[in-house]
Prior knowledge:
Elements: H1 106-122, H2 137-146, H3 160-164, H4 167-180, E1 188-195, E2 200-206, H5 209-226, H6 243-256, E3 261-266, H7 270-273, H8 276-284, H9 290-301, E4 304-306, E5 309-311, H10 323-344, E6 352-357, E7 360-365, H11 368-383, E8 395-398, E9 419-422, E10 425-431, E11 438-444, H12 446-462, H13 468-486, H14 492-511, H15 521-530
Parallel strand pairs: 1-4
Antiparallel strand pairs: 1-2, 3-7, 3-8, 4-5, 6-7, 9-10, 10-11
Helix pairs in contact: 1-5, 2-5, 8-10, 12-14
Amino acid sequence: MQTLGFPRNLGDPVVSTCKRTGVGNPEINPWPLLGVPASTEERTSGHIGGIQRMKETKSKEMGGRGSECLIVPKNQGNSLQEDPEEGRGHRDIEPLKGKMDGTSSPTSVSTKLQRIAELSRKGPEMVWTTLAHHIDLDWLKVAYHQTRKDGAVGIDGQTAKEYAESLEGNLQSLLDRFKSGTYKAPPVRRTYIPKGDGTKTRPIGIPTFEDKVLQRAVVMALEAVYEQDFLGCSYGFRPGRSAYQATEALRSEMWRVRGGFVLEADIRTFFDSLDHTCLREILDKRVRDGVIRRAIDKWLRAGALEEGKVERSGMGTPQGGVISPMLSNIFLHEVLDKWFAQVVKPRLRGYAALVRYADDWVAVFSDEGDAKRVMTVLPNRFGRFGLKLHPEKTRLLPFNPPDWHGDKADETPGKGLGSFDFLGFTFYWARMRKDGKWMIKLKTSRDRLTRSLKRITQWCKRHRHGPIEEQHRMLVLKLRGHYQYFGVIGNGKALNQFYHEVRRIWRKWLNRRSTSKPFLWDKFVLLLKRYPLPYPRVAHPSFES
């Protein structure tokens, strides 16, 4: 029996079916992308970028229905008139009349988002050329309330409190500049945070507060469109999804194939090497609104301010911006998610699954041959989009348990036992206490535990002379945050280690407040009775096998 291997063009990029102009290729018909018929009698002349108004089909010719075409505004700011899916048998939807005078309410913003989402879901091939007209003053107010107020400031040093002193005027000015195209995206302020075990750093870019508000407003619009397209394997920076759900989904997929073969890949400096040209082509398939696309281009070209110099590059999007996670999801949805689901999986002999959180992803295979073939074509696939895989961090790992017969298990190192890290957790095989059967467990990865303790040490050192009440309050928050993320069944040992290390670190730096009065352990125990630190707890339900 002949088995089908991967075709030679498996790693080819997904080519946009319509160029920016929408014309120029006689074999490509741009009109179905807009939800309208291809008949020349039903479309008027004019530029496609503004989406021309179509002639309505007579009711008697449509069997009592209304127009078969998408009737959209000639100019930005007008309302949608008809359902683009009407010609495919869907019921009529009342048009949403977005106002620009600020008389709408937050409720109408939610209605607009639902309308955009519904049209996007019904028209997966539809291209949005007018989307920014939904963004009005109330839309910006909602975006303002969703923006973090305690984040670091940008290059202008303006805080959220200062911006709120004249909130109405600031938002109106921001809206006018955004719509007229006179908004200038300021450079982000570059800073560095620890990476991995803390020995390396990762650059992040901090936008100004006003920039964060506008980015949040654009993300709201893009999210309503692309959430209808994103696949279930994507979990990062999406509403209603979390890193914990990604880890549980991965564990479920591995349990389904009894471990199988794990393809662990790492994209080298993804946010710094994201190709702007490829991103624009991908965006062209769904969103061509000139106002929104112009703003995105400005953010991509804004650059980063470091040591008084602005550095600009034709590649990458700065981590730390509100828009960056959205753009990365759009990019990897086309490059990885759709390719894996539509091209790779139908050509495999066995079962396969993909779990992705932002630029971190893992693939699970039941067949080793399938895993090896996918690993072979991955560099070519990512290379076509300007991305590279880290050769040392990309590996194929057999993750089968030693033996599935309980007491007869061969626990010799290298014979089935394996482990890997994903989203701060180490996945490994261990026995259940009750019946001794093998199961997949999670524990805090060594790098993440080390990095967390280093941060606690730095904080206690920096604030050792502060009031005890304030130190206690902050440490309680840090401990609860750690338990909330890593509090899973089977991770008790790592949680207890973190708890005791935090106590030791706190006493160490309290002891260094003064050289003449040592802070001994018996005194520290009395202090803990008055200011107790929370004990480890399980924040997430157990995994059902």
